[in-house]
Amino acid sequence: MAAFTDFPMPNERIIKCGDTTVAVMPEINLVSYFQVGPWQILYRASETGNVKRWGLPLMIPNFARLQDGIFQDKHTTLPIHGFGRNLSWTVLEHKEDTISLQLVSSEATRANYPYEFTFTCELVAGDGTLTYTLTMENRSDEVMPIAPGFHPYFALAQDDKARLIADGPEGFSVDAFRWDTNPPDNYYPFAHSARFQFPQHGTLTIEELASNDHYSLKEMQVWSEPVTAPDHEFICLEPIVAHWDGLNRPQDRIEIAPQEEHRIILRLHAQPLVR
């Protein structure tokens, strides 16, 4: 166990509401901690300290890989899961139960994603909830395509993976996988909400709230690691706009008109077991 990952770390900003505690690392816009009562919901890579296997990162402007790494609209390259998790975000506001972070286009982003933008994330701790509002503003004079995704790592002991009970997404079956050797890496339709019973912990609901009567998260990627991986005691249940290469598919991505904005609201609601 790596003691330097013990909560709270010096760079974690904390928000609270009752017995709900959330923490954020602004330098990489990582929701690093979410606990409700006795249940620590997000995985923390305490063995390796690898922040790429940790918490709830935002993948923006693209989720997953692009074909050959190329953003076809602009003939530029973008890394897997975009650049949002690799750049420092500015803290706009930090109150007891709320924190807001912002990333503005810069020389660091224009070479690969040549648009003028402002991305703002507002995180609110509620009664057993974490509400994550992503606002994407296009300050360019042309349409800005985008296909972000949320990539939460939920703590789940290896022996409990096959005992997870899932109500959604459509087509996902826990019994269809050998969790030790061949865990899932599949995407499924996401009908705005899915509920999961975590053995020994409680029930977690993952839902998108409508923004202006509109939903954006159309799929859920389900992924985990085999038991041989250094970090593996988690399951990723990832609400996303579009899967692999989605930024290059006009029919699947979001297209934000010039000088307009688009908002996505994700809510995690945890109900710990009553003991």
Automatic annotation (TrEMBL):
Record-level Gene Ontology MF annotations: carbohydrate binding; isomerase activity
GO biological process: carbohydrate metabolic process
Transmembrane segments: none
UniProt superkingdom: Bacteria
SUPFAM superfamilies: Galactose mutarotase-like
UniProt cross-references to Pfam families, sorted A to Z: Aldose_epim
Listed name of the protein: Aldose 1-epimerase
Source organism of this protein record: Ktedonospora formicarum
The organism's taxonomic lineage, starting at the top: Bacteria, Bacillati, Chloroflexota, Ktedonobacteria, Ktedonobacterales
